[in-house]
Write a structure and sequence with these properties.
By secondary structure, this protein is an alpha+beta fold. It has a single domain, classed as Nucleoside Triphosphate Pyrophosphohydrolase (Alpha-Beta Complex), CATH 3.90.79.10. Helix content is 23%, strand content 43%. It contains 3 helices and 7 strands; from the N terminus they run ββββαβββαα. Strands 1, 2, 3, 4, 5, 6 and 7 form a 7-stranded mixed sheet that branches. Helix 2 runs antiparallel to helix 3. The radius of gyration is 15 Å and the shape is globular.
């Protein structure tokens, strides 16, 4: 099917999920590995029809990482092409509160990394900018 609906960006949302290390109290970011794409990214996903973007972001975090999270500042929205369509992903900073990761076919690994290590591990350069935005939002830059 072609037409005006195809020009509407795919709507998605996610979080730059963070916590204080249980070992040394240093800031750690959660990255997810998606075997379908063999990439490392921030937890995110498509919104359900009519879903509030922040609610969708928190739902995706819980589905992909097993963590419940407390949302913080809204971070920049990313826009990029996927499969011939435009995709718009709204992001929030979110602090992990509780939960346990269980691997799925969608996400098979999570890593908790320092901001510097997270920047290195992220597959897409556009996702690295969100690390800096989180640090600025947390006033740690």
């Amino acid at each position: 099917m072609t037409g005006p609906a195809d020009s509407t960006p795919v709507q998605a949302a996610g979080c730059v999920l963070w916590r204080r290390s249980p070992v040394d109290g240093e800031l750690e970011l959660c990255l997810v590995h998606r075997p379908k794409y063999d990439d490392w990214s921030h937890p995110k996903g498509k919104l359900k029809r009519g879903e509030d973007p922040l609610a969708g972001a928190l739902r995706e975090v819980e589905e992909e990482t097993g963590c419940t999270a407390t949302p913080g500042a809204e971070l920049p929205t990313l826009h990029y092409p996927v499969g011939g369509r435009s995709k718009q992903v709204r992001y929030w900073a979110a602090e992990a509160v509780s939960g346990t990761f269980t691997p799925t076919t969608e996400v098979d690994h999570v890593l908790w990394l320092s901001p510097a290590a997270a920047r290195e591990r992220l597959t897409q350069p556009r996702d690295r900018e969100l690390v800096d935005e989180l640090l600025a939002a947390l006033r740690l830059a």
